[in-house]
């Protein structure tokens, strides 16, 4: 199980993470990325692709 954390001060709502997440786990709402339904697969795509380095991933 993985915990995804978005630093909303850094996030500019570009949507890159939403597009790149194979689990459709990330959604942009009101200009910020947020956690949606489903489950993170821990692939780290969002962490490496976010231009603002706003996403962190932790295995629980
Ligand atoms: S890729 Fe980064 S900056 Fe863009 S919406 Fe996702 S968390 Fe925010
Ligand atoms: S680590 Fe992978 S599955 Fe999890 S939120 Fe990021 S892109 Fe989606």
Please describe what this structure looks like.
This protein is an alpha+beta fold and 60 residues long. It has one domain (2-59): Alpha-Beta Plaits (2-Layer Sandwich), CATH 3.30.70. Helices cover 17% and strands 30% of the residues. It contains 2 helices and 4 strands, in the order βαββαβ. The chain has helices spanning 16-20, 45-49, and strands at 2-6, 26-29, 32-35, 55-59. A two-stranded antiparallel ribbon has the order 1-4. The chain has a two-stranded antiparallel ribbon with strand order 2-3. The longest helix has 5 residues, at 16-20. The chain is globular, with a radius of gyration of 10 Å. The structure holds iron/sulfur cluster (2 copies). Residues 6, 11-17, 28, 33, 50, 52, 54-55 line the site of one iron/sulfur cluster. One iron/sulfur cluster binds next to helix 1.
Write down the Rg: 10 Å
| CATH architectural type | 2-Layer Sandwich
Order the strands across the largest sheet as they lie in space.
Answer: 1-4
| Bound ligands, named by name, code or SMILES | iron/sulfur cluster
- Strand content range: 25-35%
Task: Quickly give the structural class.
Answer: alpha+beta
Q: Quick check: average pLDDT?
A: 96
Total number of helices: 2
What would you call the shape? globular
Percent helix among the residues?
A: 10-25%
Low-confidence runs of at least 5 consecutive residues: none
Beta-strand segment tally:
4
CATH first level: Alpha Beta
Summarize the helix and strand pattern as letters: EHEEHE
Q: How many distinct domains?
A: 1
- Sheet bearing the most strands, described? 2 strands, antiparallel
**CATH fold node name:** Alpha-Beta Plaits
